[in-house]
Amino acid sequence: MAATTSFFIDVNYQTERERITAFLEKFSVETTEPAQGPDTPTRRRRKPVAVISFPYAEQLKEISARTLSKLEIALDDIAAFDETEELVHNIELNTKRYVTLFYEAVDALLPETHTVPNDDSDPLEVILYQRRQHDAAREGTNAPLFPAMLTRRYSVYFKPRSSVKAHSVREVKGAAVGHMVTVRGMVTRVSDVKPQAVVMALSCDKCGSEIFQEVTSHTFTPITECPSADCKKNASKGKLFMQTRASKLVKFQEIKLQELTDQVPMGHIPRSMSVHLYDDMTRQVNPGDVVYISGVFLPIPYTGFKALRAGLITDTYLEAHHVHQVKKQYSQMEATEALDAVVDSLQQDPHVYTRLARSIAPEIWGHDDVKKALLLLLVGGATKTTGDGMRIRGDLNVCLMGDPGVAKSQLLKQICKISPRGVYTTGRGSSGVGLTASVMKDPITEEMVLEGGALVLADNGIACIDEFDKMDENDRTAIHEVMEQQTISISKAGITTTLNARASVLAAANPQFGRYNPKKRVSENINLPAALLSRFDILFLMLDNASVADDLRLAQHVAYVHMHLAHPQLEGNFEAVDTAAIRRFISVARQHEPSVPKEVGDYIVNAYVHLRSRAKELEDFQYTSARTLLSVVRMATALARLRFADEVDLADVDEALRLMEVSKASLMRREEGPAQDPTSVIFELIKAMSKDGEGRMRSEISIAKIRERVIGKGYTEDDFTECIETYGDLWMVAANGTKLRWVGVDEDYEIDD
User: Fold this and answer.
1) 238: Cβ contacts below 8 Å, ≥ 6 apart
2) Closest residue by Cα to residue 452 from 287, 327, 290, 329
3) What whole-number distance in Å separates Cα of residue 490 and Cα of residue 478?
4) Is 0.85 topped by the overall pTM?
5) Are 677 and 688 in contact (CB under 8 A)?
6) For the segment 102-161, what is each residue's pLDDT rounded down to a tens digit?
7) Contact between 299 and 274 (Cβ < 8 Å)
8) Count of Cβ atoms closer than 10 Å to residue 634 Cβ
């Protein structure tokens, strides 16, 4: 059979190992450091001094001293060291083999340690030291050889080149097996960290020899008969027993990486990929993280009963080498000089509150106060813990209720984009289990485990729920506990536990009738129970009122965005702040824990008492309770955080109260219009119905038609009856109560019913 030349690559691995050794020893980086020594008036400021360092040689010293256990090789450094880039290209095409070559090169460079173990040493270190001492005392005998994997106290990983392209899960195909690939996706499931055997130690019960068996796959068959020379000489066939303390176990974790929404083609469902993490790579990701994972794409055959059913089919997985978080937690964000400069300039800006609010979704015109509330939602208040352990939440919950077409869903999408952990879901497409947690079987351990839902994935983030009014009532009650206690209590399939769901809830809903009906009460338009409304810190009613000036500016804004694909200049000539800078500013602001002074506390108490006294005047738009008092405190502390202050002042409380009043502004504007009682409105309606096309009054009109029109306008039967009785001197009821006849109108001109 003729050989296929594409499978034979002219690579001399001995030469490659020498090139790797030269790279580890000679790769250098030139950095500049400020000159040492003080400057004097007679001597000018000294220039920075160029310093040459050998980063990988220094890391090898730390590995030898047992202070470093992870050696990460940046492929950009190898490309800079080898101008031909041949070595980098070979590593990317045959990563698994080159990991072994790097291990061999590092083992040759590391000096042998003779440090005496102490009480804090690893048990394996003690065993290896004792065996070396024992072998040194036995003269003329062959010392037992330890596998190289057993003596290594480090791991080698590759960091991909900065110019590498990230693929989706479905783009990684069979041609990528064995290659270094980078995959982008969202982590949906993370298993527990469990030990996995790398080298198993076996001892013979006859001759006492120690046998070390390397494990190169996820399954292995232990050796049963002793292969030592003593047992073969005596033909004793001693049995081998596993010695756990002398074996080497590494940390192992499996995660599921799922495609993002923008990577899924039309009509398809998201695909997922198994990713295996070892040693120092474990515990780097959490469910809900959007990450770039680089590693080796490898096949893994099915074992056991699955192999009988699968036949020749194998599964695939990604052996992770490098993890990059797309949106890091606020506490894990790395500071850069450019972002810190922007944060410092924003801190000095007296209008930082307004500027940041308008920088949220600048393509959406208006809604300044809504954006300010969303900014406070991102910042959050200070979470307090009392002396007896009771936790008072600091996260804000906001509900946007309004007419269609006021950009509620777009605001939710933008908040998900800004927040480091943002989960977007809809009410109709989410069940109670999908929001909280579900019980499933772990494919590795076959145990029943809990898989977190949307609210658990949004822990320490924001859960955006669109179409909140379309949710089933039984599913909606699942988030009651989350919104106040920020926990999820589960008791199913023998698992009784409490999960953390420290997430802010941002909900968007439409009124009960699709659009807000101003003729009906607020409680009839907002079809949400009072127990749920009281858990929202602030509820905005966004109405689409017709106004020539506002409609003109809105249309101009939308037309500008479509023509230029960018937002126009913000109102007040503010320059929009980009998303990364907003996220960095919020991360610095969240480090402050503002307290409430006594005079501010007294002011809040008086304001709350005033709100309670006005509760009946404001109809039932939002139930005023003790939770309202806590909402004011949370918004005030969030405003203090924006100022990087450690104390809340009166201006913060006034702004929090103003936002609560503004949330009801749409209703207030309707109530402040020309006041007309229902009786007068119904009279004008009957008068208009009695006129014909030429403006002449008809003598009679059907009461049934009047009643139908009045009820359709949102008035009640009592209002109609009161109008008939009030204006009884202008008409009279005739034809057995079916006609309304005007007094003084020519009876020859009647309406044709």
Assistant:
1) 204, 205, 206, 207, 225, 226, 228, 231
2) 287
3) 11
4) no
5) no
6) 998 998 888 766 667 776 666 667 777 777 776 666 554 454 567 778 778 888 999 999
7) no
8) 25
> Rounded CA gap, 293 and 345, in Å?
35
**Rounded to 5 degrees, what are φ and ψ at 112?**
-75, 130
Tokens of 189: 């499931």
Residue 416: what residue type?
A: C
**158, 161, 35: which is closest to 95 by C-alpha?**
158
85 token code pair: 């880039």
Q: Which of 245, 171, 145, 155 is nearest to 201 (CA)?
A: 245
Nearest alpha-carbon partner for 183 in 94, 259, 269: 259
Closest CA to 539 of 659, 626, 651, 632: 659
Rounded to the nearest 10 degrees, how much is the dihedral formed by the CA atoms of 10, 11, 15, 18?
A: 160
Q: What would the two tokens of residue 190 be?
A: 């993370």
DSSP 3-state percent helix, strand, coil across the chain (nearest 5): 40, 20, 40
Statement: residue 750 has pLDDT above 50: no
With beta carbons less than 8 A apart as the criterion, state whether 249 and 215 touch: no
Which residues in 529-538 are b (16+ Cβ under 10 Å) and which e?
eeebbbbbbb
User: Token pair for residue 697?
Assistant: 């009054």
Q: Are 457 and 288 in contact (CB under 8 A)?
A: yes
Task: Tell me the per-residue pLDDT of 520-542, one tens digit each, with 9 for 90 and over.
Answer: 777 677 777 777 777 888 888 87
Measured CA to CA, the distance from residue 17 to residue 14 in angstroms comes to 5
Tokens of 721: 């009856």
3-state SS, 222-239, equals CCCECCCHHHHHHCCCCE
Tokens of 529: 């129970």
Which are the contacts of 254, defined by CB distance < 8 A and separation ≥ 6? Answer: 191, 274, 275, 276, 277, 444
Counts for the chain of helices (H) and strands (E), in that order: 28, 25
